[in-house]
Amino acid sequence: MGIDTFEGRPTYNRIMEETTHAVRITLEPLDDYVVVEQLDEEVETRHGLIIPASADAQARSGIVTAVGPDASGVEAGDKILFPKDAGFDVRLGGVAVKVLRRAALIARVHD
């Protein structure tokens, strides 16, 4: 920081350094809500079950990333199916996720 004068009065010149900070945002679901990161591609399980990604599909697939304290039977890392119009769409740190009630989940996919 340097001191200059302008018409006899001191002025302060500040050098501002622009820094970028990686903002880490976490979403902690409450009650029986779960956070799901959607899978957009067609998924085929090891057992041959094909889960389509077409717009005609009534169900979507995704990976559970967070689970509320009252959501039983599912945990983070599970691959699941859910109705395509269920839940709430949320953008979190540039990533689109769905926030759904546990009861909205159709099935867990084991592959």
Structure keywords:
two-stranded antiparallel ribbon; 10 Kd Chaperonin, Protein Cpn10, Chain O; about 110 residues
What's the topology here?
Blueprint lengths: L1 E5 L2 E5 L19 E7 L3 E2 L5 E2 L7 E9 L11 E5 L4 E5 L2 E7 L5 E3 L2
Antiparallel strand pairs: 1-2, 3-6, 3-9, 4-5, 6-7, 7-10, 8-9
Compose a concise summary of this entry.
This protein has no helices and ten strands. The protein has strands at 2-6, 9-13, 33-39, 43-44, 50-51, 59-67, 79-83, 88-92, 95-101, 107-109. The radius of gyration is 24 Å and the shape is globular.
Assembly category: single chain
Q: Per CATH, what is the topology?
A: 10 Kd Chaperonin, Protein Cpn10, Chain O
Shape: globular
Q: Rg to the nearest angstrom?
A: 24 Å
- Separation of termini? 61 Å
CATH class: Mainly Beta
CATH architecture designation: Roll
- At the fourth level of CATH, the homologous superfamily is GroES chaperonin
The proportion of residues forming helix, as a percent range, comes to under 10%
Label the structural class.
mainly beta
Low-confidence spans: pLDDT under 50, at least 5 residues?
none
Return the string of H and E elements: EEEEEEEEEE
Tell me about the biggest sheet? Answer: 6 strands, antiparallel
Number of helices, counting only DSSP H or I runs of 4 residues or more = 0
Mean pLDDT: 78
- Count of beta strands: 10
**Which percent band covers the strand fraction?**
over 45%
Domain count, please report it: 1
Sheet with the most strands: spatial strand order: 8-9-3-6-7-10
